[in-house]
Amino acid sequence: MNRPVLGAFAAAALVVASCGNGSEGALGQAHLSADCPSQDLSCVAQGLDGPLAVGAAARINVVQAFPGSATPPTRLVSSHPDVLVVDGDLVRGATAGRVTLLVMLADEDAVIDFMHVWVTAADRLALSAFTSDGRELGEVVTGAELLTGEDLVLAARLYGRGQKLLGDTQAAFAIDSDVVTLLREATSGRTRVVARKPGQATITVTAGGLATTLAVEVKP
Amino acid sequence: MTRWCVPLLLAASVAAGCENRYEAITAPPPGLTASIDDKSKSIRLSLGASLAFECTNTEGDPCARTTSTSSASTALIFPANLDTLTEWGREHGPQPRSAFVVVGIAEGRTTVEAGGDSLSVTVLP
Lengths: 220, 125
Known about the structure:
heterodimer, A: five-stranded antiparallel beta sheet, 2 helices, elongated, B: disordered N terminus
């Protein structure tokens, strides 16, 4: 194995080993994370690392490990359904507040683990760029330049008081020209911007009552 | 007067000795309150916060997993499943631990029962 590959493998292993698989529950028996693409190690490792945005939804992945036992059937329960709505493994921020998210046995009122969750209203909308395999590159801070045929994967991100908020927003993407085409990704809620011909376009994104724009220039 | 005091004190100490012992096993979330006082048998919780605590009897064995609440609109209580055993038990050896999770639902005061004894619960704003 050559050194760069070995180094990348070691770094990935370190991330997983040091951060664990998501956020550990209060009882240490379950790890919770937003459901991530399996190849997105940073997403899997970061867990629930912020408040959930009002109006945003997150699919919660719960990993449990009991010595000598496979994972039993469980369910998620919100202590305050008026603040955090639970629908299967999907949680949605309804109003600002704080709740306990309980992991309970499916057919019994017994707690396996729990986690405190905050729901916060967003005050800023930004766009994050991703690689085609789902790795987050960071917030888009300037306009984008693409060559014809190239693409760019974007997702709307909500912030509250400067802190990145969790959850997928029901963001609406719109463009003012046919220089680029927008393709909604089926599994991630992200949007792929495909450059079709040289020219300029402005992408307008709205979510949670907030809006932002991105200027895109397609070069020949 | 003195003649009655001694039996009363003895009865009180015996009764006190038969009480369960409650110990917190989780810390409060940042900026919030979640604590239990075994001496006063009282719990203080912030609204939306939860506390897990373990219950043992005077012999160090786990309490019964019985729970109830006087006001479910103020605080809820559930038994918790832990995957570890008690460290010691005078007569029965290591046993599955008996633990409970109490959840602050709305500001106010109520009582919950966990493992046979009552605990007062104050839910803070």
